[in-house]
From TrEMBL:
UniProt cross-references to InterPro entries, sorted A to Z: MlaA
Pfam family, one: MlaA
Keywords attached to this entry: Signal
Name of this protein: VacJ family lipoprotein
Gene Ontology CC annotations of this record: membrane
Gene Ontology BP annotations: intermembrane phospholipid transfer
Amino acid sequence: MRRLVLSLLGFVGGVFLAGCVQFSQSHDTSFLPAASHPEDVHLLLKSAPDPYEPINRVFFNLDKSLFTYALEPVWSGYNAVVPKKARTGIRHFGNNITYPVRLTGNLLQGEWANAGTETKRFLINTTVGVLGFSDPATEKFEINPANEDIGQALGKWGWTTSSYLHVPIWGASSPRDVIGGAGAIYLDPSSWFYGAG
């Protein structure tokens, strides 16, 4: 418990310090063309049912403020401090460690070949890719990922339509994907460490 509290305090402190970072560099976007859309764009877009519109608007505005005033400065500070190669390695490691989520999503859909592909990718990236900090499965062996999740499995089982739901921090989703994501939390090894100690 003590480690968790210290970790949270360190994270919150880092967020506040990263929020203090200022960048004087501004980007000139005047050369970009103005956005335009056809008059009949509404005919091209299929809208999702939105019975939760009032709460979705509240959560969207909350996210907009959170991203603008907290997460974007942290992300900018992270990008300024951590070299691109290290960020790529961290992203690869995070993707590699969530192998159980993708494996389960493939197995629940009966995608046996894709489950095998994900297992090959995990073994190659964990060994040759040094714990997954690089992705030789894609780069050297040309084994592409088979990204499936529990929400997609629920869709294959018959839950095909779902309402639009904006989840704070997660963003645009649906009740089906929220339930799938909740199940994936227990499969994600990174979530196992929060209960330890």
